[in-house]
Structures are given as structure tokens and as C-alpha cells.
Design goal:
alpha+beta, 31% helix, 3-stranded antiparallel β-sheet
């Protein structure tokens, strides 16, 4: 996906209030990132931290992040072996790598 399109989507989600704190930075030291946030590590890998409000599994998270619940497959494909019915608050899901 083109970076400009991805940025536009994320900005739209933030403006509409769909994802609280979507631009939080990765934590320093031993602190954990805030639940319900997306962060990027030093190598450009993006992650989402599951929050207690993520009760609709990958569909609900895709709606928060991308504004489209049908994108749940992108999250599932990036996280093989993770059962979306058993997500725990604080669990990190891999999203993508910015290139």
C-alpha cells in the first residue's frame, strides 16, 4: 500500500475518533505501550496492542485501524496461529512493515 494512502487512512481514523492514540510511539525501557494503540519499532515494523474494548476480534480491530472490518484478513494473515476469539488486553499483533 502506498504510504500516502496509508497515512490518509490513519489520519481519517484519528479525526473521526475511531482509534484512540493511534500515533503513540513505542515505549522506552520496560514500559508497555498503551492498549489500543499502533506503534512502530526501530526497524519499521508496525504493531497493534489489544485493548479491553477489542471484543470483536480482528474485525473490530480492522475497523479501528483501517476503517474497514473486511480488512480483518490482513491482520489474520500477518498473525498466523493467533485465535481472534482469544485476544488478551496487552497482546501485540503484527500489522506490517513500512517500506
Amino acid at each position: 500500500m502506498n504510504r500516502r494512502i496509508a497515512l490518509l487512512i490513519l489520519l481519517t481514523v484519528v479525526v473521526l475518533g475511531g482509534c484512540n492514540g493511534v500515533f503513540n510511539s513505542p515505549p522506552d525501557g520496560n514500559d508497555s505501550p498503551t492498549h489500543g494503540t499502533i506503534y512502530e519499532d526501530e526497524e519499521g515494523f508496525r504493531y497493534y496492542v489489544v485493548s479491553e474494548s477489542d471484543t470483536n476480534g480482528f474485525v473490530g480491530i480492522a475497523e479501528k485501524i483501517y476503517g474497514d472490518g473486511d480488512r480483518w484478513r490482513d491482520i489474520a494473515q500477518a498473525n498466523p496461529g493467533i485465535d481472534p476469539r482469544r485476544l488478551e488486553p496487552g497482546q501485540e499483533l503484527f500489522l506490517s512493515r513500512e517500506e
